Each structure stands twice: as structure tokens, then as C-alpha cells.
């Protein structure tokens, strides 16, 4: 008997771990849901990052989305300190050395107008004399705390980070802490993007 394949989108709030095992001082995925017992996140978001988590029990999909050879995009909205210059944005686009290795080229732009996002449970630090800017970054690799390291390297530390898309899957309309199963259209699109039968 074939196992039923499950595909879920979850909007991870700030301060929540991308795992079901609880750790002291943090909430985990176990505090939300309920989720089927056999699903796991595809990739991770740090506790201080927010946004789209994709959960599935389909290891084929997990492999295609995580493996670097497939170059599937991940899109983030980052609220950064200051106002990045075009020179700084171009550095993010062309690649920055992080821990001795250059990042792959990325798609980067300033979000105008600023995105309408829900308030965070713990507000960002606010400095009256320093403005903030929202930028969109689409990466084609998944290194540890990559967005934060990239923006810090060009002098604009990330204050708030939200993942809004993984490949063709989007956060649209999903409130923090809520989840839903993929629609038939989303499954069809994901199947085409990954060249898999879902």
C-alpha cells in the first residue's frame, strides 16, 4: 500500500524553532498544527526568522528542493538598517565572500512601497536617527544564516527576516502560526517545476 503524500505550507512566527522537538525557551512546530506525524520541514528557518516553511513526507520533493544541484530559488524580505546604495545592492547581486566562499549571484531589489507585514511579537530595535529599508532577495543556495551574513557584509544588518517563497510556493495570505495543505493547482505547478509526479 502506497503511503499518502502530504504537502503543507506553514507561516512560522518569530521565536519558533523549525523542528518538532522542543527546546528550553522556544516554541516548536509541536505547538502549532496539528500536523501529521510523518511530515518534516524542507530546510530550516532560524528561531529569529519568520515566514514560509514547507512540510512534507515526500523525500523526493525534499531532495529536489534542498539539493544545490537543482538551484531552486528562495525569496526573502529583509528589513535592514539604513538605506542600501546601488553599489551595495550590486555587491549582494554579484556575490559576497562569506567564510571564505563566494555566494552565488542573487536577485536583489528595494521594496517600494514597503511590504504590509503583520507586527512581530518582539518588535525590532528602533533607532530614531537610523532609517530602515525593506529589500527582497532571491537566493539560489541555502547556506546557514546567509541573508543576515550578506546584508551585514555590505554594512546593512538585517533587523527582521521573512521568507516569502520557496520555488513556486508562496506565503500569500497565510497568517503567522497558521498552515494549509497545497491546492491542486499548487501541486500541479510544483510537479512541473520539480519534474516529479506528485
Describe this structure in words.
There is one protein chain. The protein has 198 residues and is an alpha+beta fold. The chain has two domains: 7-67 and 168-194, Alpha-Beta Plaits (2-Layer Sandwich); 74-166, 2-Layer Sandwich (Alpha-Beta Plaits). It has four helices and eleven strands, in the order βββαβαββββαβββα. It has helices spanning 59-66, 86-94, 146-153, 184-194; strands at residues 7-12, 40-41, 50-56, 74-81, 97-98, 101-102, 107-110, 132-139, 158-166, 169-170, 179-181. The strands form two sheets. Strands 1, 2, 3, 4, 7, 8, 9, 10 and 11 form a nine-stranded mixed beta sheet that branches. A two-stranded antiparallel ribbon has the order 5-6. A hairpin with an 8-residue loop joins strand 2 and strand 3. The mean pLDDT is 92.
Give the tally of β-strands.
Answer: 11
Q: Tell me the span between the first and last alpha carbons.
A: 16 Å
> Low-confidence parts, pLDDT < 50 over ≥5 residues?
none
CATH superfamily of the largest domain: Alpha-L RNA-binding motif
How many helices in DSSP terms?
Answer: 4
Look at the structure and give the CATH class of the largest domain: Alpha Beta
* Helix percentage: 10-25%
The helix/strand series, from N terminus to C terminus, equals EEEHEHEEEEHEEEH
The domain count comes to 2
> Major sheet, described briefly?
9 strands, mixed
Report the β-strand fraction as a percent range: 25-35%
CATH topology of the largest domain: Alpha-Beta Plaits
- What is the approximate shape? globular
Given helix and strand content, the structural type is: alpha+beta
CATH-derived architecture of the largest domain: 2-Layer Sandwich
Q: Summarize model confidence as the mean pLDDT.
A: 92
Cα-based radius of gyration, to the nearest Å: 17 Å
Amino acid at each position: 500500500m502506497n503511503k499518502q503524500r502530504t504537502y503543507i505550507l506553514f507561516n512560522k512566527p518569530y521565536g519558533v524553532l523549525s523542528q518538532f522537538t522542543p527546546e528550553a525557551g522556544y516554541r516548536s512546530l509541536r505547538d502549532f498544527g496539528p500536523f501529521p506525524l510523518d511530515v518534516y520541514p524542507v530546510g530550516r528557518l532560524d528561531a529569529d526568522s519568520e515566514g514560509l516553511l514547507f512540510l512534507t513526507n515526500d523525500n523526493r520533493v525534499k531532495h529536489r528542493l534542498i539539493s544545490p544541484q537543482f538551484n531552486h530559488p528562495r525569496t526573502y524580505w529583509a528589513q535592514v538598517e539604513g538605506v542600501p546604495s546601488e553599489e551595495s545592492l550590486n555587491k549582494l547581486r554579484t556575490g559576497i565572500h562569506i567564510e571564505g566562499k563566494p555566494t552565488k549571484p542573487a536577485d536583489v531589489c528595494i521594496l517600494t512601497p514597503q511590504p504590509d507585514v503583520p507586527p512581530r511579537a518582539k518588535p525590532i530595535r528602533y533607532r530614531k536617527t537610523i532609517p530602515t529599508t525593506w529589500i527582497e532577495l532571491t537566493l539560489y543556495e541555502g547556506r546557514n544564516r546567509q541573508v543576515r551574513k550578506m546584508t551585514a557584509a555590505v554594512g546593512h544588518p538585517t533587523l527582521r527576516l521573512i521568507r516569502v517563497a520557496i520555488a513556486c510556493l508562496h506565503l500569500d495570505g497565510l497568517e503567522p502560526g497558521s498552515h494549509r495543505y497545497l491546492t491542486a493547482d499548487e501541486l500541479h505547478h510544483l510537479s512541473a517545476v520539480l519534474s516529479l509526479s506528485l
